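Whiteboard transcription, Tuesday session. T.W. wrote the structure tokens on the left side:
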């Protein structure tokens, strides 16, 4: 039976990996938020063999797909997925052990625009709790920037998201940075990506 497949993850995994390889040391521990189908986890972990990759998602119905893509990629450094809702005060959200060992990377792709706004604060606070002293939070997705014209495709995407769920929508980069600051994180790098997306890097203030 074919594994669930995300065309977007297939398209963006290569350009995202290029930046991760430039940012990250040879070894470390990564926590992926909202792993979805697991295509990112499999691709990144296979290309970063010195890293241990912890996938998570709020929907445990996806856990079979996450494990399946990792098997297909031969990525033995991917841990069993855990259930995690970023809004929870303790991570992960299941009944298993908490994340007690810090992570060197917290990675979240295409999360903030398809979750309520309080998910942004949850992501920032959780990353601040679980990052190692020199760790990085990396997010990927579309954003609204006050000083940059928004692409028509992103405006249409934002309207579609809000029609589907009023709590969803593209987030202003300034608002995201403000939530990061409240949690003790600050923007470090901004990288323009294909299809009018951004890869953002945050570290501790």
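and on the right, the sequence the group agreed on:
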């Amino acid at each position: 039976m074919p594994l669930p497949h995300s065309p977007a993850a297939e398209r963006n995994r290569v350009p995202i990996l290029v930046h991760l390889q430039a940012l990250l040391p040879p070894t470390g521990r990564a926590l992926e938020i909202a792993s979805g189908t697991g295509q990112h986890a499999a691709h990144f972990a296979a290309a970063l063999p010195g890293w241990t990759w912890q996938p998570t998602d709020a929907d445990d119905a996806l856990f079979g797909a996450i494990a399946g893509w990792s098997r297909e990629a031969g990525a033995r450094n991917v841990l069993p997925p855990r259930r995690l809702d970023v809004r929870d005060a303790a991570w992960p959200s299941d009944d298993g052990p908490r994340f007690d060992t810090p992570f060197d990377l917290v990675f979240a792709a295409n999360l903030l625009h398809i979750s309520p706004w309080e998910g942004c604060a949850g992501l920032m606070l959780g990353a601040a709790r679980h990052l190692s002293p020199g760790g990085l939070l990396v997010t990927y997705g579309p954003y609204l920037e006050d000083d940059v014209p928004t692409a028509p495709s992103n405006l249409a995407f934002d309207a579609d998201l809000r029609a589907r769920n009023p709590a969803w929508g593209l987030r202003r980069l300034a608002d995201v940075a403000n939530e990061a600051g409240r949690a003790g994180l600050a923007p470090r790098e901004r990288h323009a990506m294909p299809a009018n997306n951004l890869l953002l890097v945050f570290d501790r203030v």
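Someone added at the bottom: The first strand starts at residue 28 and ends at 33.
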